[in-house]
Write a structure and sequence with these properties.
By secondary structure, the chain is mainly beta. The protein is about 5% helix and about 50% strand. It contains two helices and 22 strands. Strand 5 and strand 6 form a beta hairpin. It binds zinc ion. This is Arrestin-like N-terminal domain-containing protein.
Length: about 350
C-alpha cells in the first residue's frame, strides 16, 4: 500500500490566515476487502529546542500546539480506479482544511496571528514553526489486527504584519568629532534628544560638542518588502566651520538587518538574534557642503531576502531592526570616528503573484 498526498492547485507562495488548503490523497495497492480506517489531521506546532544545552534542569524541547483539526475520510467517499498495467487499485479523494484566523493562549478578544513557518537555529537554540497535514490509513490484516500507514506534508504559511503602529522612517547618527577616533559612539539612548519629534535632524547647535550628523531616511513608512529594493537616502549635516576648514570625508556606511525572535512558551521568554548584511559603502566621499546627500550610485538599495515577516503574537514575536554604522574622518588618515544607531522596521512578504495577474486583467 502506497500513500501520496499533494496540494491540489498550484498554489503561489505560502498560505495566509483563513486560506483553504486543498490537497488530493491517493492510495495505491491491493483492493480493500474491508473498509480501511482513514483519518486526516492538520496541525500547527512551535517547537523550541536547545540542541547543545547540557543543563539537565531545563527540558530539551518545548512543543506548543498552535491548533489541531481532525477529519475522518469515509471509505465510500474514495474514488476507485484500476491501474491497467499493474492491476493495482487506485483510491483517491480530495481533502480540505482551513488555516485558522489565529491561535494563541492569551485573553485578547481577537486571537493573535499565527506565526509564519520558520526554522531558525542560532546561539544554541532552535525555533521551528510548522504546519503539517497528515493522513493515516489503518487496514485490517488478521482478525482484529490493523496495520497503519501514514503520509504527511508540510504546508508553508506566512502572515501579514500588523501595520497599526508604523515605525518612523528615519534616524540620525551623531558622530562626535572631538572624541577619540576608532571608538563607536553608542547613541541609542540619547538619539531621541537630538532629533525633532518627527524624527528629522535638528540644525547644528554650537552648545553641543562639534559633531557631524548622518541622517538615514527610508521611504515613508518604513516597510521593507522581501525581495524588493528599498531606496535609502543618506544626508550628512556638517557644521559650517568644519566645512570651511575642509577635509571632511564620509568613510563608510553599513546597514544590517537584525531579526529578534522571542518565544514565550517556556518558563522564561527567550530571544534569538539573527543578523543579515543589508548594504554598505566604504571609501572616501568628500563632504563639501553643510547639507550633503550621498549619491545613490555610490550607495544603492537595501535588500531583504530571507527574513520572515514581522510577527506579533503572545507565543512568538519577530521584530526587525536596521542597524546603521557610519564612519567619518577629517583627512584621509585612519582616524575615523564611528557612530551606530538602530531603528525598527516592518518586514513584509511581497504580494502573491496571482493578485498581480488579476489586477492586470481587470
Ligand atoms: Zn495571544
Amino acid at each position: 500500500m502506497k500513500l501520496s498526498l499533494a496540494l491540489e492547485d498550484a498554489h503561489q507562495g505560502p498560505f495566509l490566515a483563513n486560506d483553504l488548503v486543498r490537497a488530493s490523497f491517493e492510495i495505491r495497492g491491493p483492493t480493500f476487502h474491508k473498509s480501511p480506517r482513514i483519518s486526516a489531521k492538520f496541525v500547527g506546532t512551535m517547537a523550541v529546542s536547545f540542541p547543545t544545552q547540557v543543563n539537565a534542569a531545563s527540558p530539551g524541547q518545548i512543543t506548543t500546539v498552535l491548533f489541531e483539526q481532525h477529519k475522518k475520510i469515509e471509505y465510500r467517499d474514495l474514488q476507485w480506479d484500476e491501474d491497467a498495467s499493474s492491476g493495482e487499485s487506485i483510491y483517491t479523494t480530495p481533502i480540505e482544511f482551513q488555516f485558522p484566523d489565529g491561535a494563541c493562549y492569551c485573553d485578547r478578544p481577537q486571537k493573535c496571528q499565527l506565526p509564519p513557518s520558520l526554522d531558525i537555529m542560532e546561539q544554541n537554540m532552535r525555533v521551528k514553526v510548522s504546519y503539517t497535514m497528515t493522513i493515516s490509513v489503518g487496514r485490517s490484516v488478521l482478525g482484529a489486527m490493523t496495520k497503519t500507514k501514514t503520509v504527511a506534508m508540510e504546508i508553508p504559511f506566512s502572515c501579514n504584519p500588523s501595520t497599526a503602529r508604523l515605525p518612523r522612517s528615519s534616524c540620525v547618527l551623531s558622530v562626535p568629532m572631538n572624541e577619540k577616533p576608532g571608538r563607536y559612539a553608542r547613541l541609542r539612548d540619547t538619539i531621541a534628544d537630538q532629533e525633532h519629534d518627527d524624527g528629522s535632524c535638528p540644525s547644528y547647535s554650537p552648545k553641543y560638542s562639534p559633531s557631524i550628523k548622518v541622517e538615514v531616511l527610508l521611504p515613508q513608512p518604513a516597510i521593507l518588502i522581501r525581495g524588493q529594493p528599498t531606496p535609502v537616502q543618506i544626508l550628512v549635516h556638517t557644521p559650517t566651520d568644519m566645512i570651511e576648514s575642509g577635509n571632511v570625508y564620509l568613510r563608510s556606511v553599513s546597514m544590517d538587518l537584525k531579526t529578534l525572535v522571542t518565544t514565550s512558551t517556556g518558563a522564561v521568554p527567550r530571544t534569538i538574534t539573527q543578523r543579515r548584511h543589508g548594504c554598505s559603502m566604504a571609501g572616501a566621499v568628500k563632504i563639501d557642503s553643510e547639507l550633503f546627500e550621498l549619491d545613490s550610485g555610490a550607495w544603492g538599495n537595501f535588500f531583504v531576502l530571507n527574513a520572515k515577516p514581522t510577527t506579533e503574537s503572545c507565543i512568538l514575536r519577530m521584530d526587525h531592526v536596521v542597524e546603521v554604522v557610519t564612519g567619518i574622518s577629517v583627512g584621509l588618515g585612519n582616524d575615523i570616528r564611528y557612530a551606530v544607531a538602530a531603528f525598527e522596521v516592518i518586514v513584509m512578504d511581497p504580494p502573491p503573484a496571482y493578485e498581480v495577474g488579476d489586477a492586470i486583467q481587470a
